[in-house]
Every structure is written in structure tokens, then in C-alpha cells.
Design a protein that fits this description.
- The chain is an alpha+beta fold and about 90 residues long.
- The protein contains 3 helices and 5 strands.
- A hairpin with a 4-residue loop joins strand 3 and strand 4.
- Helix 1 packs antiparallel against helix 2 and helix 2 crosses helix 3.
Amino acid sequence: MKLNLARDVTLTPVDSGAVLLDGRRGRYWQLNASGSTILRKLLDGETPDAAAASLSAAAPVSEVQALQDVQALVDALSAANLVEVAQ
């Protein structure tokens, strides 16, 4: 899976995680620290499995749950048209 920010979407780090600005609609989306870290890993080319393993190592969550969380984040960002997913 290859993940990219959609056109006119910017990602800005903040103290609590990151903010995505959808310049097409003038809407902001806030990600917590975990969501921000996972999104950056996926944008840098890591697989969802690798990103989930990193999340599981850093937080008290199983790899199975972490992978579900990674997929839920991708699904939510994709549904909001903030990212483009290519297989």
C-alpha cells in the first residue's frame, strides 16, 4: 500500500500530534501523537504491518489491535479525502 496526502492537504506537526489542513474545504483535522506518528510512517513508505509493530512496541496494545487501529486511521483519512491510497 502506498499512501500520499491528497492534493491541497498539508500536514503540520503540533505539540499534541499533527494537524491536517484541507485547503480545498478550509477544514482542519487534528491527529493525536499516535495518529501523527503512524501517518508519518505510512507517508514515508512503511507498510501498515510495520507501522502497527512500531505502535505496539510503543504503547500497551497488541499487534492485532494496532493493525486494526492503523487500518481505521487510513480508512477515516481516506473517507475524508485527506489521503490517497494506492495498492
